[in-house]
Amino acid sequence: MKLSVQILKALTSLEALLIFERVANSGINGIDNTSLAQSVLPHITRKQYYMSITGLKQAGLISKTSGKCRPTYLGLVILNSLRIIDKGIMFKWALRALDAAEVGAKQQKQNLEPQIKGILIERMVTDETIRKILIIEQGEAGGPAVVCEG
């Protein structure tokens, strides 16, 4: 199984996300097993806890040593990616508006001018990380990687 599929599978449940975020936010020093269990067990069952821990370990997102759960470096990268996803979600209406402008231009058999697209991105998306992603995509592909019309 591809590692990316294994990672996504390990993070599919809210329980696993809760555990992963607690471990990852503990930093490289980690969190002791007892504290982690006490912080999440009121919200999930023991079975969910142990299944989630196992999945996260198998995906390489956390490690357990000396009674502590620690994020791996891969886990820290994935945590950062999840934070970028959260930022993108905060701008979903602006991103939908950009998609609508693209589709509207295509329906008129035109392309949305790069300058206009740049201005829209600049004005509607205030987060620098998301803005950079959109500008890079615009420069490399002339638009979003995938546009579905329906």
Short summary of the structure?
By secondary structure, the protein is mainly alpha-helical.
Give an overview of the whole structure.
It is a single chain. With 150 residues, the protein is mainly α. The protein has two domains: 3-81, Orthogonal Bundle (Arc Repressor Mutant, subunit A); 91-141, no CATH class. Helix content is 67%, strand content 7%. The chain is built from eight helices and three strands, in the order H-H-E-H-H-E-E-H-H-H-H. The protein has helices at residues 3-10, 14-25, 33-40, 46-58, 73-90, 92-107, 114-124, 128-141, and strands at 31-32, 62-65, 68-71. The chain has a three-stranded antiparallel sheet. Helix 2 (14-25) packs across helix 4 (46-58). The chain starts with a helix and ends in a 9-residue tail after the last helix. Mean pLDDT is 87; it is low at 145-150.
Topology record:
Elements: H1 3-10, H2 14-25, E1 31-32, H3 33-40, H4 46-58, E2 62-65, E3 68-71, H5 73-90, H6 92-107, H7 114-124, H8 128-141
Antiparallel strand pairs: 1-3, 2-3
Helix pairs in contact: 1-4, 2-4, 7-8
